[in-house]
């Protein structure tokens, strides 16, 4: 495949810590490693104050997202992108997030007649229910549908997500999957010294959950499962890796839990591998990168049967699944896994094997092929230049 010139637009990128930022970085770095030129467009971050801006970066003004102060929304102004892409026209625009900056990129690309691919990465319309904004779910979903249907195609991580979006009127949706760094996340990173620092004896078990400590992660179910399992295993410990607005309330409710805060790189890998079971009760994920990370680290996973868990976890083999929203079944699954040590160990061995072949190279190559197809003849009729602004909010 000839090298592509790709403009990649994202509202979040490392050093910000979240699944979207880390996944987009894997794709950008992977495309560059495969010889493609990627011009990265993202909001300015405080960490940028101490470093020069690279020629292949376009930093736009950004503002903190309410209740997510560590994340930023980009400017909705399309004019700088129009000027940048007129000066150096990309073959294709890849929009990773659907926020104000993504909208500006879509508007600019359509005015210039540039082909566009988008990612559907975050269920914004579902998050509102956890912040008293459930009444906005309909308008937000309508916006997302209009946004993505104005792109040549929309990329999603699972077949279940493709079917869900198609049933809601989203068009030209394609599955690309997600990769996992099996070198970074591996059982070999288990640290007895770290477990000793947690105050955990060799025979005691650690139940881990990694992610933002926020309402949309459904941590009440995690704590209920821990409390129920601990009645049978008094030495069980709960490890929460991450930070967020619920931390004070969670600490007050469960003072004996291990609050590790946000972890990165080798430290994050060690926290995964030093646990014995991974639990994930979120019902708002489009994928959930923590699931394959836990499996690669050799942890059985208990989760609801949706998103990444539905694709990767086989009940009784490398973890257990509960029907989405069935908290009783979720809690019972945790108790079952922790109550059978031989079975838990067999699941741990199978967990690693179940994701060993899911490297990022294959996923990035598929994304590059889809972008190349979009960069060729236009798919479907294009709306007249300038018409987008009348249909999407400015």
From TrEMBL:
Pfam hit, one: Glyco_trans_1_4
Record keywords: Transferase
Molecular function GO labels: glycosyltransferase activity
The keyword Signal is annotated on this UniProt entry: no
Keyword Transferase among UniProt keywords: yes
Residues annotated as domain Glycosyltransferase subfamily 4-like N-terminal: 17-184
InterPro entries referenced in this protein's UniProt entry, alphabetically: Glyco_trans_4-like_N, Glycosyltransferase_grp1
SUPFAM superfamilies found in the cross-reference section: UDP-Glycosyltransferase/glycogen phosphorylase (SSF53756)
Protein name, entry field: Glycosyltransferase
Provenance organism: Piscinibacter sakaiensis (Ideonella sakaiensis)
Source taxonomy: Bacteria, Pseudomonadati, Pseudomonadota, Betaproteobacteria, Burkholderiales
